[in-house]
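Intended use. Records like the one below are meant for learning the mapping from a protein sequence to its folded structure. Do not use them to infer anything beyond what is encoded.
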Amino acid sequence: MKMIVDDFFADEIWVTENGVRRRCSKFEAIVAQLCNKADAGNRRATRALLRYMEFAKEHGGTREINFVVKNDDGSFTPLSPISNGERHG
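Structure written out for the chain above:
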């Protein structure tokens, strides 16, 4: 079952961002959508992102995932790592 899920998330699809088409993994597309919705104030998307971060931490993924918050001035602030299911920072 793990291999089926891994293969699904690794598959690449075409996405359009700001009018530019590019290929990315399904996982990247899902996370990008959640980030956009969380940035717009969607609490459900924010909770889902935090759960993804915790899952990755618990399962020792081979890739590091860093989440950032875009500030009003256009700069970015990294989210601190979470511990015991809570975000610190």
